[in-house]
């Protein structure tokens, strides 16, 4: 009897458990995205969405009908508080998202679908979906279209304001960047001095104003810190005292000094020695020029020149100046010095590495005579050639320095057109890799260090070498991208469409070459002035150059 009773209890329990199981609901299927089309083009499997219409229509198809409560911007959206419209299809399996207000052109946006979105039967999207996308270019001009000559003048005049309106009020020197306060830069001031000549010739300022500013600059330079006649990279614009560039770089900078002296010599050649006030400036420039002890920077008579020296750190930086890079002008001025010159062996061994700086390889179908693979950052073709005219210039290491700089520029453009890293926005109009600010800091951008950053000074300072290609870039930067690139002192330093970043900065060493090299393209003015200096011609001869 007991056994039978226990058996009945067991059956009742089993039946009860079975009934309970029958009442439990199965887990809903996951909600899947089966398709995403933008303006009718399937994009779901694509990882890079670019050239998207500014009034895009996005169609999202799901594996199950969507709960209408989730068909809104809380669950499906585009970053940036854009005005969107949402429409669910009759079967509720397709959600259409329309942009009601045009997106910004050539800009980065984030499109996302929340993992909290649900189907009508509770289906859940297991993972959030998101993609960065980039809108198409709006080709309409952002400013009135003017003649090419007027555009070149406008760019020179606006950029000149950096060196004129924004110059340090006490010293007249160029600030390193637009946020530098009292910090002024030696090399950038050399570029600025050359731009003053352009300013006078183009009528942006009067000759009297330019001479007055030059007097202010010379007065400052005469009492500013120098080390064996060599200025530091950075100085306090009020006191003239060195501001360390780094821990061990708190003294002389021979490269920055050479860029300054290049500007001083060009300005000297612009002056009229028969006018007493101008002759006074000439004599003062000559004194500063003669005081630079280029030969001392051979460091115990070595056959090379050294970049830095400090009274308390000595030669701790230990950086020899070797080509090919931006520093050819240092060796030319050292050979040209009437008081502290260096012999040709210093140029051959130190700068040219006895031929080690030669290249001769082909990049992008173009032969590069000198320098690193693909040429390096484009400022190599600019800084030494603001005054030094490469036309017809040759020596034992390069048969045609103009061709070197032209080919370097063409390689740079061709690399951007090929765009092997698939950065957004690169084209035959949007090109130019050189040292500048970027979205993470600062870098010397080049084909071998391509971070997606286009720097306007690269293409614009190559105007003498690539006039057609540079004019394309100028028109693109001004007319097409002017709404984001054009500001108080001309073009902002750089931009990266892929990173969604545009600089708000200006740098003296990037703005100066734009003014000077556009002028060299138009009239050859700075080339003519610098090359007219008898010391420069003597130095070229001493180093074995033909020009």
What's the CATH H-level homologous superfamily of the largest domain?
Answer: Glycoside hydrolase 144 (GH144)
The shape, in one word, is: elongated
Indicate the CATH class of the largest domain: Mainly Alpha
Based on secondary structure, the structural category is alpha+beta
Q: Helix share of residues?
A: 25-40%
Mean pLDDT: 95
Number of strands: 21
Q: Report the CATH architecture of the largest domain.
A: Alpha/alpha barrel
Rounded Rg: 32 Å
The domain count comes to: 2
Count of helical regions: 15
CATH fold assignment of the largest domain: Glycosyltransferase
Features:
five-stranded antiparallel beta sheet; Immunoglobulin-like; four-stranded mixed beta sheet; 35% helix; elongated; 15 helices; 547 residues; Glycosyltransferase; 14% strand; disordered N terminus; alpha+beta
3D structure, described in words:
The protein has helices at residues 2-23, 148-164, 186-201, 207-223, 254-270, 276-291, 328-336, 344-351, 401-418, 456-460, 467-480, 482-485, 508-522, 525-531, 534-542; strands at residues 33-38, 41-42, 49-52, 57-62, 76-78, 84-88, 94-99, 108-113, 129-135, 183-185, 234-236, 252-253, 308-309, 362-363, 366-367, 435-438, 441-444, 486-487, 490-491, 495-496, 501-502. By secondary structure, the chain is an alpha+beta fold. The protein starts with a helix and ends in a 5-residue tail after the last helix. The model is unreliable at 1-21 (pLDDT under 50). Helix 2 (148-164) runs antiparallel to helix 13 (508-522), helix 3 runs parallel beside helix 13 and helix 5 packs antiparallel against helix 6. It is built from 15 helices and 21 strands. Strand 6 and strand 7 form a beta hairpin. The strands form eight sheets. A five-stranded antiparallel beta sheet has the order 2-1-4-7-6, with no helix packed on it. Helices cover 35% and strands 14% of the residues. The protein has two domains: 33-135, Immunoglobulin-like (Sandwich); 148-542, Glycosyltransferase (Alpha/alpha barrel).
């Amino acid at each position: 009897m007991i056994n039978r009773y226990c058996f009945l209890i067991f059956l009742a329990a089993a039946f009860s458990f079975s009934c309970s199981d029958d009442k439990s609901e199965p887990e809903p299927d996951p909600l899947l995205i089966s398709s995403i089309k933008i303006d009718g083009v399937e994009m779901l499997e694509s990882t890079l969405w670019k050239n998207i219409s500014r009034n895009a229509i996005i169609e999202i198809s799901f594996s199950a009908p969507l709960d209408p409560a989730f068909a809104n911007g809380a669950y499906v959206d585009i970053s940036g508080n854009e005005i969107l419209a949402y429409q669910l299809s009759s079967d509720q399996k397709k959600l259409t998202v329309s942009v009601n207000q045009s997106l910004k052109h050539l800009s980065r946006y984030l499109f996302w679908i929340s993992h909290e979105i649900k189907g009508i039967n509770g289906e859940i999207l297991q993972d959030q979906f998101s993609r960065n996308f980039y809108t198409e270019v709006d080709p309409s001009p952002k400013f009135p279209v003017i003649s090419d000559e007027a555009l070149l003048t406008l760019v020179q005049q606006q950029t000149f304001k950096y060196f004129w309106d924004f110059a340090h009020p006490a010293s007249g020197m160029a600030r390193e960047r637009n946020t530098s306060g009292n910090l002024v830069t030696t090399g950038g001031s050399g570029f600025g001095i050359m731009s003053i000549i352009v300013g006078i010739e183009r009528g942006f300022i009067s000759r009297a104003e330019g001479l007055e500013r030059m007097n202010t600059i010379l007065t400052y330079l005469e009492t500013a810190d120098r080390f064996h006649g060599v200025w530091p990279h950075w100085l306090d614009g009020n006191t003239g005292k060195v501001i360390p560039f780094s821990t061990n770089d708190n003294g002389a900078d021979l490269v920055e000094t050479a860029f300054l002296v290049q500007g001083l010599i060009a300005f000297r050649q612009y002056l009229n020695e028969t006018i007493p006030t101008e002759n006074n400036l000439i004599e003062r420039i000559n004194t500063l020029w003669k005081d630079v002890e280029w030969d001392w920077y051979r460091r115990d008579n070595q056959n090379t020149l050294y970049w830095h020296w400090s009274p308390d750190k000595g030669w701790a930086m230990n950086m020899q100046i070797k080509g090919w890079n931006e520093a050819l002008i240092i060796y030319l001025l050292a050979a040209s010095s009437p008081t502290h010159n260096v012999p040709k062996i210093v140029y051959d061994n130190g700068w040219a590495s006895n031929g080690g700086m030669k290249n001769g390889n082909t990049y992008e179908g173009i032969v590069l005579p000198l320098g690193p693979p693909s040429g390096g950052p484009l400022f190599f073709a600019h800084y030494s050639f603001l005054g030094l005219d490469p036309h017809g210039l040759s020596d034992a290491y390069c048969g045609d320095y103009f061709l070197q700089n032209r080919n370097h520029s063409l390689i740079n453009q061709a690399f951007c057109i090929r765009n092997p890293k698939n950065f957004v926005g690169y084209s035959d109009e949007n090109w130019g890799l050189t040292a500048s600010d970027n979205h993470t800091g600062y870098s010397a951008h080049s084909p071998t260090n391509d971070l997606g950053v286009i720097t306007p000074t690269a293409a614009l300072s190559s105007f003498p070498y690539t006039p057609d290609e540079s004019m394309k870039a100028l028109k693109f930067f001004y007319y097409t991208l002017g709404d984001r690139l054009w500001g108080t002192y001309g073009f902002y330093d750089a931009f990266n469409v892929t990173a969604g970043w545009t600089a708000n900065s200006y740098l003296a060493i990037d703005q100066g070459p734009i003014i000077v090299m556009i002028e060299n393209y138009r009239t050859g003015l700075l080339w003519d002035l610098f090359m007219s200096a008898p010391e420069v011609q003597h130095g070229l001869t001493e180093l074995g150059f033909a020009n």
